């Protein structure tokens, strides 16, 4: 993006409110924790793109997403934190994934991997506000030495790269489209990218389409940010039109940086200059424009009217950009000008560098103990400075936007200047069918838990196995403290902790649209200490003011509660919450919550194969079926040592004990019912 960031690649991490983590200042000595033979993903130059196929790209199958794109529920304002917000405006976040490479100045985290053996990484938690996730960063091309990546020198970056598949998994689970990226300039000849064959086809476009379909992502963000020739510019538009004709299912957003004659130019609005990259004479070139940051009310209004005059919907094609990477919580251009009121925005919204909460944290973002503060910053950014999506809006106007943009951030780390994304964008949900199960697993941990027992003390990050998380952080009634707990969990790395309740508190958890058929039951795994009272509250759309209250069993350890929902047949569930009373100094922990069929039947046949086993390094490459009802596979050694959880067809795993002669594999269904375990022999291929 603008301001010379293109030489840097910025991956990020969103921390989490944490209970019981190591003290601040404790950082991992080995910040790069890639396994000895662990594959890492790469970008493409023109030659590599033209020659790409799943067969020639030896690592491609390990970076496919196996998670389908869930459908978003229709807008329903009555269950929103702010019912006055309308849902027409869309949101794109242009961000990174696990880590910040460090730019060759600071120690960085080059995590071009699906999984990471470290906890202090960015695992995004606010998908409910996002419609499109994309990365703007560059990725070194195939063949780059990983040691060079770590030191960030002698690198050639690709023009095209696909998104981290673990992020695609999490995005898709929440109904969010995940985009790859195109970035120019790079160190090669641009004309190679827009070559057209005699039959009218564009080979690069065909390969980009094939890459997206094979890898299971949803389109591209085109960051074309350097002058090219007039001829090449015209060819680029023609190629994009061809792309959209061949693959109308794939989404393209074009950055506001280029004229039709190939000159670098920022409109900071929407007019005849950049509409060229959306609407062509013979079709659509892109779906939308990421408008550069220096818009104002006048430019937004003119762009809105211009879009309508050429037959386009302003909220579909105009995305007003906000620069957070550089300016943090206080960008100079005021988002309130986009959203003049809560119901009639002038444009949709695009966020650049929303990962700043982690990557620009004013301290050591590799310290486990600092993840509490990082997640507070994340909640302040998305839920507003009060960390409450019902009471958003900035806390001060002094030195806040709008202010003259002199290229320097103004009080960038003070969330009081920021209104919160939830001030403008209504939360969305993809929860509309059964089974729905969440373990409140954020996608990283200080250890790993199954059925309430710690089965590993190894740190990890894998957002690909992140559950659908609570819709709000935190929408509560009454006094209570809420946090993710990483020292006690039912399944995964975390549970939801509610403590220091004063009297009674209601914590609203999930927005949903589920018509019950009379064959469902609600299941919970919770710790509700004696003397405390906890209830699940079911808010049905036909009577939202009078929720149905169902009691949760008391227990000092993990306890299952199963509640028959047959009495609510044909009623539509709009929201699930929990009521807690009298916790004193004791905490209530929620480890699992689900709505599942009463007579759970698993479908499909799990198949798990070890393709290659490297005994000396304790690594393996495996293949598993992910069709039908299968959700994931938990892999352990015969002695019970937990190895990993996988949710993709082709996976890398390590930490296999040297004495292991087989893998014990537990397939798990989407209802969280378990299949019979598989015992898979290990044959050394060293």
Structural class: alpha+beta
Low-pLDDT regions: 3-30
- How confident overall, as mean pLDDT? 92
Question: Rg, please?
Answer: 25 Å
Q: What does the largest sheet look like?
A: 10 strands, mixed
Number of E-type strands = 34
Tally the helices.
11
Helix fraction, binned, reads 10-25%
What is the percentage of strand-forming residues? 25-35%
Entry keywords:
eight-stranded parallel barrel, ten-stranded mixed beta sheet, 13% helix, 686 residues
Description of the structure:
This protein is of the alpha+beta class and 686 residues long. 13% of the residues lie in helices and 28% in strands. It has eleven helices and 34 strands. The strands form seven sheets. Strands 1, 14, 19, 21, 22, 23, 24, 25, 26 and 27 form a ten-stranded mixed β-sheet that branches. A hairpin with an 8-residue loop joins strand 33 and strand 34. The longest helix has 17 residues. It is globular and about 75 Å long. The N terminus is likely disordered.
List the helices and strands and how they pair.
Blueprint: E1 18-19, E2 43-44, H1 46-50, E3 91-95, E4 132-135, H2 146-151, E5 160-161, H3 165-173, E6 177-184, H4 203-215, E7 219-224, H5 230-246, E8 251-255, H6 272-275, E9 279-280, E10 283-284, E11 288-291, H7 297-309, H8 314-317, E12 318-323, H9 324-327, E13 348-352, H10 356-359, H11 371-383, E14 436-438, E15 444-445, E16 448-450, E17 453-456, E18 460-461, E19 475-485, E20 491-492, E21 495-515, E22 520-528, E23 533-540, E24 548-551, E25 555-564, E26 572-581, E27 588-597, E28 608-614, E29 619-624, E30 630-636, E31 642-646, E32 650-653, E33 662-669, E34 678-681
Parallel strand pairs: 1-19, 3-4, 3-13, 4-6, 6-7, 7-8, 8-11, 11-12, 12-13
Antiparallel strand pairs: 2-5, 5-6, 9-10, 14-27, 15-18, 16-17, 16-20, 19-21, 21-26, 21-27, 22-25, 22-27, 23-24, 23-26, 28-29, 29-32, 30-31, 30-33, 33-34
